[in-house]
Sequence to fold (80 residues):
Amino acid sequence: SLYSQVMEKLRKKIFTGEYQVNSKLPSELELMKIFNVSRVTLRKAIEGLVNDGIVRKKSKESEHLCESQKKLTNHAFISS
Fold:
């Protein structure tokens, strides 16, 4: 599904250090443009990363990375 593809792309960006651990992710609007997806799809992808313990929601509008690079290496990546 589209949201799972976005979720894996985000996971890969976190793993590779493009989005740093313990830093704020780009805004929803920016991520929607980057991945060319709707807000619903993006939120579902981010929620999947929250459920996996990779992203922590600090407030309603901002998501923060929360896990170490070591934990991220345990996840599989889908090539795009």
